[in-house]
């Protein structure tokens, strides 16, 4: 698990996100590319877990960055953290997509043609994919806000105060969301240790 605290407080010697954004607004394209390289992968990882769809996650990150570029000329350093703003937009966009997904008819998986794939590659990736799909399936049953909080706290490594700022709620609300989400996730994953790659040690306990 990577430490996302670096997004909220850049390491010593690093140019702050806000300074990069202001530089981009003033015509420094390299500053924009540097900010994308810093924020993009983290935003994508979080969105992909929340949405369970990498294609949609890419679209969400792209839209987040477009909105960031649009408001860059009006950004005031010291008033907010760029990373917090970006994560908040990303989570809001994810929520919108989840709502739209529930409102539209679902396509049966059997009707979607499977792409041709090299058998050896499939076998090589099977275990990792199964773990990821099992976890994503369990996450998908959580209410949207619980899923976001659990992903940010337990998969992305944010602290409760950071999540509270991103989700615009109190720390106690974050604690409640993550606690309830963690219990629901544990229940959803019960009996699936083998799918996650863990040996069944219940007989030894």
Shape verdict: globular
Helix content range: 55-70%
CATH topology grouping of the largest domain? Rna Polymerase Sigma Factor, Chain: A
Which secondary-structure class do the elements indicate? mainly alpha
CATH superfamily of the largest domain: RNA polymerase sigma factor, region 2, helix turn helix motif
- Helix and strand pattern: HHHHHHHHH
Uncertain runs: 5-9, 107-117, 198-205
The average pLDDT value, as a whole number, equals 79
CATH class descriptor of the largest domain: Mainly Alpha
Number of domains: 2
Short summary of the structure?
By secondary structure, the chain is an all-alpha fold.
Give the topology, please.
Elements: H1 5-8, H2 17-25, H3 29-51, H4 54-71, H5 82-103, H6 119-140, H7 144-155, H8 160-167, H9 171-189
Helix pairs in contact: 2-3, 3-4, 3-5, 4-5, 5-8, 7-9, 8-9
